[in-house]
Amino acid sequence: MATVTIQKVTKAFGDNVVLREFSAAFQDGEFITLLGPSGCGKTTMLRMIAGFEKPTSGEIHIDGQLVSGGRTFVPPEKRGVGMVFQSYAVWPHMDVFDNVAYPLSIRHTPKSEIKASVEKVLSIVHLSQYAERFPNQLSGGQQQRVALARALVAEPKLLLLDEPLSNLDAKLRESMRFEIKEIQKKLGINVVYVTHDQTEAMAMSDRIFLINRGVVQQCGTPQEIYNSPANQFVADFLGKVDFFKGEAQNGRIIFPAMGGQSIPYSGGRRGRVDAAIRPENFYFTEDGVLTGTLETQYYLGDVDDCRVRVGDTLVRVIANGYVHRTLREGQQVCLGVRDMMVFPDDGLLEQMLEIST
């Protein structure tokens, strides 16, 4: 296991600053995810930890040793890290055993030790029975596990994963998430994982660093970031959410676009606000705070994904799948609200919408 300390790391390519004063401390045994949209700087940070890029300024320490910073630069092969890339990068002319053994073979490790180490790691990734197969005889998920085993066989202090599941189909991605997390817990290894997929981040991470435009917007557990986002960008990027413009006054937020209907509010903001409500935090009830018309229902089995017209506003409601049996399109309904996040109406929401388009 290895601690990683990053102190005010900035990376620029010419005039383009892709990462700005990133500071963090990753502890022993943590599963850390660097999350954010494409081009936000997360892969650049991972490559600097690995030693494939040098920071423009700042320092990186692994296990207390300075590996990047000032005049010091430790090359990748001497950092004790393993890395798995987005592409499987398995050797097509080698069978599974030799692919996994490769890092040990180039170190001239004795054959008996190679055999024992490879057999151990193939058992961990559930590929023991495929040791003699070639990559073209394996599924995408199996090839990704070969790449993972190859990174683990040299017993690295730190495992770096750069969007390793993005080339897999949805069902394989889901199963591999849990396999990687179980392997990490079993080995007690530190993992730094890069993804733009918020579901992966939520399912696997101990802590998430959410990055936008090279700046960390928020760091915390999945629960902290999801339930208490630092700003509108965080609320919008992690999970489903709708924003409603309103006026906070006299213990309520009034929504002009909802025909003047309002929701009780006990927070400290006053005046113009952006209220952010996740679709699962609306619910159908006979005695709600909002009334409207159910316009559409999308039955997805486990949930009923609905749209309710409240004044001039279309509100998304993700309800229990059983709701589909009791409600009909065109019906008048009442909505309750379990939770609401309130931000100042400072123009950030409009900036986000401009960026997304």
Description:
The protein has 357 residues and is α+β, with helices and mostly antiparallel strands. It has two domains: 4-234, Rossmann fold (3-Layer(aba) Sandwich), CATH 3.40.50; 242-356, Beta Barrel (OB fold (Dihydrolipoamide Acetyltransferase, E2P)), CATH 2.40.50. Helix content is 26%, strand content 35%. The protein is built from nine helices and 21 strands. It has helices spanning 42-50, 96-105, 111-124, 140-152, 170-187, 198-204, 222-227, 232-237, 348-356, and strands spanning 4-13, 16-26, 31-35, 57-62, 65-69, 72-73, 81-84, 158-162, 190-195, 207-212, 215-220, 242-249, 252-254, 262-264, 271-277, 282-284, 290-299, 303-310, 313-320, 332-337, 341-344. It has a six-stranded mixed β-sheet, with helices on both faces. Strands 2-1-4-5-6 form a five-stranded antiparallel β-sheet, with helices on one face. The protein has a five-stranded antiparallel β-sheet with strand order 14-13-12-15-21. A hairpin with a 3-residue loop joins strand 17 and strand 18 (303-310). The chain is globular, with a radius of gyration of 25 Å. The two termini are 42 Å apart. Residues 353-357 have low confidence and may be disordered.
